[in-house]
Write a structure and sequence with these properties.
With 361 residues, the chain is an alpha/beta fold. The chain is built from eleven helices and 13 strands. 38% of the residues lie in helices and 17% in strands. The strands form three sheets. The chain has a seven-stranded mixed beta sheet, sandwiched between helices. It has a four-stranded antiparallel beta sheet with strand order 9-10-13-12, covered by helices on one side. A hairpin with a 2-residue loop joins strand 12 and strand 13. The longest helix has 27 residues. It is globular and about 70 Å long.
């Protein structure tokens, strides 16, 4: 008898999350996964790998709590922010009964996690979140248990004002958790919802060391919330989620000097992003440039084939289908040298466009 008979009925309907790395593209300049271009050199000297690690390493928790302006009881360390998403759904949602609210297009892992746990999706729009009234948003959220707000949003880069998040949280008090995914918040730190946590019991913030901290390969994240929100999650999380090696590197990354270095790098990347946006807006190969707040820029191509031309040049970016159209592209903010490759690609497209126009005339 095949083991397939043991699978749940909905397994065929599930779709795995399609990450940038899973696309198996080849190239020399990688600007497709919103990774930092900065390489860290880390010295590790660990002599107790024969022992189980601290489930929530105090050195990391203390430093992250200080960095986020919270108490240690309000910080939970996870294997990337993705584990935080999974823990929230698994802890607070009842399968085949509850739903989560999303504002689409947004980060795909919310849907993948909900589908995996047989939790329904209440798919709302980014337009509603950004332009709709709080009353309209609350009405559309309905009885969803969790409301995910990616801020800044991936892949559009849009930013929901902090006052609006606060109003949504107040309106949903006792009804739903408002989960603000701040994977990219270091690029606009003044917009963080972490300052709402102490006053609002239903506000949860997700963070990561993958982006601005340049540690995507470490898979380290944090779930920030009031102690009463985290207590049930602590019952669900794996017994040893954080390895000794990961804890050591994370603690080093959160030292005062390392945080100062991270902020300096963010300043450089934000300046490079503005330069890239100027290039894109001036290019006839680009129809629309979204004004984003993360370490990426999302744009609409005039010709979808421009993406294939980039691949031929070894330039790997992230192709997207947005708003029902498959000619969107997200470019991660890399080093100055990497972005120069984008400029060469854009200039080549502009020259090709000009030549075609001359031929027509």
């Amino acid at each position: 008898m095949s083991n397939n008979a043991l699978l749940p009925a909905n397994i065929d309907a599930l779709a795995a999350y399609s990450s940038a790395k899973s696309e198996k593209l080849t190239g020399t300049t990688w600007l497709n996964a919103n990774e930092s271009p900065y390489v860290k050199s880390i010295d590790i000297n660990i002599d107790d790998l024969n022992r189980y690690p601290d489930p929530q390493p105090a050195s990391v928790i203390n430093r992250y709590a200080q960095y986020a302006g919270l108490s240690t009881e309000q910080v939970l360390m996870t294997r990337g922010a993705d584990e935080g998403i999974e823990l929230l759904v698994r802890t607070y949602c009842e399968p085949a009964k509850d739903s989560i609210a999303l504002f689409l297009p947004t980060y795909g892992m919310y849907k993948v996690t909900a589908d995996t746990h047989n939790v329904a999706i209440n798919g709302l729009s980014q337009a509603l979140l950004l332009e709709g009234s709080v009353d309209d948003i609350i009405s559309a959220v309905g009885d969803s248990k969790l409301v995910f707000i990616c801020n800044p949003n991936n892949p559009t880069g849009s930013l929901t004002p902090l006052d609006k998040i606060k109003a949504i949280a107040i309106a949903l008090e006792g009804k739903a958790l408002v989960i603000v995914d701040e994977a990219y918040i270091e690029f606009c730190p003044e917009q963080s919802a972490s300052k709402l946590i102490s006053d609002y019991a239903n506000v949860v913030v997700l963070r990561t060391l993958s982006k601005a901290f340049a540690l995507a390969g470490l898979r380290t994240g944090f779930t920030l919330a009031q102690e009463q929100v985290l207590l049930p999650i602590r019952k669900v999380i794996a017994p040893y989620p954080v390895s000794t090696v990961v804890a050591s590197i994370a603690a080093s990354a959160l030292s005062p000097d390392a945080i100062t270095s991270m902020r300096r790098q963010v300043s450089i990347l934000n300046a490079l992003k503005e330069k890239l946006k100027q290039w894109l807006k001036a290019s006839p190969a680009v129809l629309n440039v979204l004004s984003g707040e993360g370490n990426f820029v999302t744009l609409k191509l005039a010709n979808k084939n421009s993406f294939n031309i980039a691949l031929q040049q070894g330039l790997v970016m992230r192709a997207f289908t947005l708003y029902g159209e498959n000619d969107w592209l997200r470019i991660s903010i890399g080093s100055e040298q990497e972005l120069e490759q984008v400029k060469i690609w854009l200039d080549g497209l502009s020259q090709s466009t000009a030549q075609k126009e001359q031929e027509v005339s």
